Each structure stands twice: as C-alpha cells, then as structure tokens.
Amino acid sequence: MAHLTETTAASRPLFHRITELGNSIAARFARYQTYRNTLAELRMLSDRDLDDLGIRRADVPVIAAEAAYGK
Length: 71
Hints:
mainly alpha, 68% helix
C-alpha cells in the first residue's frame, strides 16, 4: 500500500507574515486612537454646541465609532 504525503512551503516567508501582523496591529491601534480622540473631543462640547451641530449626546459614541471604523 502506497502512502502519499503532500508538503507545501508557506506562501510567504515568516518575516513578511510578522511584518503584516505588526502593520495590522498598528492600523487597529490607530483606528482606536481616532475613536478615543473623537469621543473625547465630542464629549467636551456643551449640549448647546452639540445641538448646533445636530448631535444628541447619546449619539456621541456612535459618531466616534463611525469616524474611526466606518460603521
């Protein structure tokens, strides 16, 4: 009885995969920082300022998430 084992090399070298992982982490952190900064800036506004912009205070986290993550 014959047994066949197929072995393939990784499509990309380990260094490239590690670099991609680092870039992915950096991009996620940058988006999170955008969220936090937007949230902080909007929370500093008074209710009147938010009303002038047409924003309810309850919508501030949603708007910050949209700014950072596009959701």
